[in-house]
Amino acid sequence: MKIRAAVLEALGAPPPYAQSRPLAIREVELDPPGAGEVLVRIRAAGLCHSDLSVVNGDRPRPVPMVLGHESSAEVVECGAGVTDLRAGDHVVLVFVPSCGGCLPCAEGRPALCEPGAAANVAGALLGGERRLHRNGTALHHHIGVSCFAEYAVVSRRSCVKIDTGITHREAALFGCAVLTGAGAVINTARVAAGQSVAVIGLGGVGLSSLLAAVAAGAREVVAVDLHDEKLALAQTLGATATVNASQPDAAERIRELTRGGVDAAFEMAGSTAAFELAYRITRRGGQTVTAGLPNPAARFALPVAQLVGEERTLRGSYIGSAVPLRDIPRYIDLYRRGRLPVDRLMGRTLALDDINDALDRLAAGHALRDVVLF
Question: What's the start-to-end Cα distance of the chain, in Å?
Answer without folding.
Answer: 17
